[in-house]
Write a structure and sequence with these properties.
By secondary structure, the protein is α/β, with parallel strands linked by helices. The chain has one helix and 22 strands. It is an enzyme of class 4 (lyase).
Length: 293
């Protein structure tokens, strides 16, 4: 047998074995890379689905409070992004109890800004959030980490011309509503962010004393609302209205979230639904102005 041919055959076999081993290594590498890519794709999609890619401020510190903080008439309270945590045994645990205390109470013309409203571990949320009484208020860049029942309640009764403003900020984990309008006047809500909530805003459907109320909602981004529920709920028999522009909805049930629902309000029994289309009088919005994320 020719030695040169034998060597050549051995070299070919060695090269073939090297090629096979290299192919296996490359194959494993490709498989691993594919798994990593698939994993990160799922993570990114999950983040986008939940909405948590949006800005949420980091707390600069924590303060546990044992009594409602009252911001007096026309005064400003700047939290500087401190997290305020209500003592659940005193103010409430964020559950369904309607008689919980707020973390902040804003008197007529007061401003609350740059706050993080937290919740104690093991509770259902942050007591009853923020209440606004008297002649309106401004809530600016206030973030609710774990709403519980309601985040913001407007209770002003001074006149029918009261204006309440929410500008910026966000809320998540609302078992019921994020904004509750119990008093008189108009709530202006703009540049707000919501994630995981049942309903966004409601004019009280069965308060003992009922009034005409209005909402103007603009540039709201809301993820993961409960399918079949709504962004704004109004009582047509009390001449309420909701004007909605620049609405962005995300999450699995986004297309099953109604921008607005009309109700027949009461002073005791549960209200009944009376439509959910844009009617130009009570529910004022344009379907082409809604973006699905």
């Amino acid at each position: 047998m020719d030695a040169s041919k034998s060597v050549s055959t051995q070299q070919k076999m060695m090269l073939l074995q090297v090629f096979i081993r290299s192919s296996r290594i490359i194959g494993r590498f490709i498989s691993i890379m594919f798994c990593y890519i698939a994993f990160f794709a799922v993570v990114i999609l999950a983040l986008l689905e939940s909405g948590i890619c949006d800005f949420w401020p980091a707390a600069t510190g924590n303060i546990t409070i044992n009594a409602t903080i009252v911001v007096n008439v026309s005064k400003t309270f700047n939290c500087n992004y401190t997290r305020y945590i209500p003592n659940p045994t005193i103010l409430g645990d964020g559950g369904t109890n309607e008689f919980q205390s707020p973390v902040f109470e804003l008197q007529g013309g007061a401003t609350l800004k740059n706050c993080i409203i937290g919740a104690a571990p093991g509770t259902n949320g942050s007591a009853d959030g923020v209440h606004c009484t008297g002649a309106g208020c401004l809530i600016q860049n206030v973030w609710f980490e774990d709403v519980g029942e309601d985040a913001i309640t407007f209770n002003g009764l001074n006149s029918s011309n009261i204006n309440y403003t929410i500008d910026g900020g966000g809320a998540r984990y609302a078992h019921d509503k994020i904004v509750m309008l119990d008093g008189r006047g108009t709530a202006y809500i703009k540049n707000f962010w919501a994630d995981i909530y049942a309903r966004f805003a409601r004019s009280c459907g069965n308060c003992k004393d009922q009034y005409e109320r209005h909402m103007v909602i603009s540039n709201l981004t809301a993820y993961n609302g409960t399918a079949g529920q709504y962004i704004a709920g109004v009582n047509m028999n009390y001449n309420d209205s909701a004007i909605i522009t620049g609405l962005k909805l995300g999450g699995a049930g986004a297309r099953q979230m109604f921008p607005c629902k009309r109700f027949i309000g009461t002073t005791g029994p549960q209200p009944t639904v009376n439509g959910s289309d844009a009617d130009g009088k009570y529910c004022i919005y344009n379907s082409s102005d809604i973006t699905y994320l």
